[in-house]
Write a structure and sequence with these properties.
Blueprint: H1 3-12, E1 17-20, E2 24-25, E3 35-36, E4 39-44, H2 48-51, E5 59-64, H3 68-82, E6 86-89, H4 94-107, E7 110-113, H5 123-127, E8 158-160
Parallel strand pairs: 4-5, 6-7, 7-8
Antiparallel strand pairs: 1-4, 2-3
Helix pairs in contact: 3-4
């Protein structure tokens, strides 16, 4: 934890409509620890400069779109242009999940589909040698891939409960 995280958190909450403000939480065992809950900030697709920028810290942006198709298009374009380590989709519609799977494959990012329970952002890295796909700007290398044989091939996965 450093002061830059708190600065980014404060700045992020001024970039849109604060839907859920971050708050300080006291740790029962470590009272001197600095613990903050995530902030949820509402923005629109016009705020691309915000949601296309990296923001290390407890911040989530909720980007309002015209509908599901535009949401998937914005997701795919953002990952292709700026990258993503992992992505998640939650939908009761098999068509929406399939469209997100196709967009994630095209963008070169691992996708978690409707996973529940203790799902961590980088769960792929915890249980395999893959951390990123090596196929987009944020994950342009992975721990194990076939690049030493043929750099044009990448591994992209999609996970779901069976």
């Amino acid at each position: 934890m450093n002061d830059a995280v708190l600065t980014r958190l404060s700045e992020a909450q001024s970039r849109g409509d604060v839907l859920v403000a971050s708050r300080e939480v006291r740790h029962p065992v470590y009272p001197e620890a600095i613990v903050r809950t995530p902030a949820l900030v509402g923005i629109s697709t016009a705020d691309a400069e915000t949601y296309e920028s990296e923001c290390f810290g407890p911040v989530a942006y909720l980007v309002a779109t015209a509908g599901t198709d535009e949401s998937i298009e914005v997701f795919q374009r953002t990952v292709i242009e700026h990258g993503a380590m992992t992505a998640s989709v939650y939908s009761a519609s098999a068509d929406v999940v399939a469209a997100m799977r196709a967009a994630a494959l095209d963008a070169g990012v691992a996708l978690s589909e409707n996973l529940t329970g203790e799902v961590f952002v980088n769960q792929s890295a915890a249980f395999s040698d893959f951390h990123g796909t090596g196929a987009n700007p944020a994950a342009n290398a992975c721990f194990t891939d076939a690049a030493f044989v043929a750099n044009r091939f990448r591994v992209v996965q999609s996970r779901r409960h069976l």
